[in-house]
Design goal:
The chain is α+β, with helices and mostly antiparallel strands. The protein contains 19 helices and 9 strands. The protein folds into 4 domains: 145 residues, no CATH class; 107 residues, Serine Threonine Protein Phosphatase 5, Tetratricopeptide repeat (Alpha Horseshoe), CATH 1.25.40; 125 residues, Serine Threonine Protein Phosphatase 5, Tetratricopeptide repeat; 64 residues, Carboxypeptidase-like, regulatory domain (Immunoglobulin-like, Sandwich), CATH 2.60.40.
Length: 515
């Protein structure tokens, strides 16, 4: 007989022999003979006990199948100190010959149990394989297959109890793997994403297929699988683009990278390459435009230069280089405008068109109020305009020179004009003509006044002359008023016009009408 260990569920884990070889040598020594009757009685008793015990054992085994294990040569440890290798790899298994001598009912029960365990295992393994277990199960899956193979071998050798144990171990491994499905899904998605990023299309396809076996409704895996199927085409386009780059065929490279992005808009390699080449092309175009812009600037084609620099800025928004170039264009335009105004002012001065010259200088100062030539030119032009306008006034109305104030102003103008060098024909002509008018206005004319020596005579702008018979005056050309007064008589008033160069002018003034 042997003792058995039961697990918490009542199943028999291991059959442990009660006595092992060499444990109690005295138990196997020869005992003294007894009488024959005693032997017969003992034999009958033993047979009865055996029959009764066998019946009880069959009933127990029908409810609790015994798991057969190979009996080791060495002693078996207790459950708490069990040597796992001695259980998993028995040194001596039950042979078919030994099984044949066992109880047929027990064998049938053990076989039935082993078949049930096999069915449970195969069902669980099939479910595991449907979710890609062979692809992600790793070492544990390999160990499970090994347990299955060992169990099959034991089953074929009719060691049903041991086979049942192995099938149970294999089933536990399947269940462990099934419990790792979520972690496996996370892992294969990461591995698939990495393969996709590295351009390993076949590996990525495999990983995402496995992910869809684990989670058929996983949208990320489905999208990524579609990307992975195009990876080889995308990588060929990227490699082709790199070749064009090496040969400076940037336009062709950009075309390849753009097509790669069309196939896989999420390809970081294609996007990086596309951006790089696009930037290189933009840089080249930028440099060409900047060069063209400066050429136009040096050729003083400022509008073309500005338009070219603005186009260059579209390739590099916010470029300081473009801003500096545009500032140079603006400065060149200002300088050119100022130079144009200076030339116009000088030309107007030569033509003695001082109004035009003044306008040009003022326009230049509006651009830059610190320009010295414009400051000086404005002052000079303002003086010349003032002199010309005043001369034009006196030349147009020479009679006003009869006024001492106007005559003094005209003389002042002539002095200012005399200091201007060079004068120019227009100013010379005006000055000469005005000088003639001034000379005429300054040249007195002889006038004779006749009276009765009774009338008080006064000449406006000259003064009181008193009573006289005859009075000779030298008056500048102009209009004068002569007034006569006498007590008891009505006043007499007479206008006297003195013309330049006039001779023999006589005026009689007497108060003869009584009041």
């Amino acid at each position: 007989m042997s003792t058995t260990e039961h697990n918490s569920k009542g199943k028999i884990d291991v059959i442990i022999p009660e006595k092992v070889y060499g444990r109690d040598e005295g138990a196997y020594q020869t005992r003294p003979r007894s009488n024959n009757l005693l032997k017969v009685l003992l034999l009958i008793f033993a047979l009865v006990v055996l029959l009764v015990g066998g019946g009880l054992l069959l009933v127990y085994l029908s409810k609790n199948p015994v798991q057969m294990a190979g009996v080791p040569v060495e002693g078996v440890k207790s459950k708490t100190g069990m040597d796992k290798s001695s259980v998993e790899k028995p040194k001596r298994e039950v042979t078919p010959a030994a099984i044949e001598t066992a109880n047929p009912t027990q064998i049938a029960l053990e076989k039935e149990e082993a078949e049930k365990k096999l069915t449970d295992f195969l069902s669980a393994k099939k479910a595991l394989d449907r979710i890609g277990g062979p692809e992600w199960g790793g070492d544990l899956y390999a160990q499970m297959l090994q347990r299955n193979q060992e169990a099959d071998g034991l089953f074929m050798n009719k060691a049903y109890a041991s086979a049942s144990q192995k099938y149970s171990e294999a089933l536990l491994m399947v269940n462990r793997l099934a419990g790792q499905a979520d972690e496996a899904l996370r892992r294969v998605l990461e591995e698939g994403s990495l393969a996709l990023a590295e351009g390993k299309g076949k590996r990525a396809v495999n990983k995402f297929n496995v992910a869809l076996m684990l989670d058929p409704g996983n949208e990320f895996a489905a999208r990524s699988l579609e990307r992975a199927k195009k990876t080889e085409s995308v990588m060929r386009l990227i490699e082709s683009g790199k070749g064009h780059e090496q040969r400076n065929g940037f336009s062709l490279a950009l075309t390849d990278y753009r097509e790669a992005l069309r196939l896989d808009p999420q390809s970081k390699k294609a996007q990086t390459a596309f951006n790089r080449v696009k930037e290189m092309i933009a840089h080249d175009q930028f440099q060409q435009l900047m060069s063209s812009g400066f050429s136009a600037l040096h050729a003083e084609d400022y509008e073309a230069a500005r338009a070219t620099f603005l186009k260059a800025r579209s390739f590099k928004p916010g470029s300081n280089e473009v801003q500096d170039a545009l500032a140079q264009v603006d400065q060149a335009i200002r300088l050119a405008r100022i130079e144009t105004l200076r030339e116009r002012a000088l030309a107007a001065e030569k033509m003695e068109d001082w109004d035009q010259a003044l306008g040009s200088y003022q326009a230049a100062l509006e651009i830059d109020n610190s320009i010295q030539f414009a400051v000086r030119g404005k002052e000079q032009a303002q003086d010349r305009v003032r002199i010309e306008k005043n001369m034009a006034f006196y030349l147009g109305k020479p009679n006003v020179l009869e006024s001492d104030r106007h005559l003094a102003n005209a003389l002042g103008l002539l002095r200012e004009a005399s200091k201007i060098e060079p004068k120019g024909p227009r100013l010379n002509g005006q000055a000469e003509k005005l000088d003639q008018f001034v000379k005429i206005a300054k040249t007195p004319v002889s006038i004779t006044l006749d009276s009765d020596n009774l009338t008080e005579v006064a000449v406006y702008k000259v003064g009181r002359l008193g009573k006289f018979h005859t009075w000779d005056l030298n008056l500048r050309p102009g209009t004068y008023t002569v007034v006569g007064t006498r007590d008891g008589y009505k006043d007499v008033r007479q206008k006297m016009v003195v013309k330049p160069g006039e001779e023999g002018l006589r005026i009689t003034l007497k108060c003869e009408e009584r009041i």
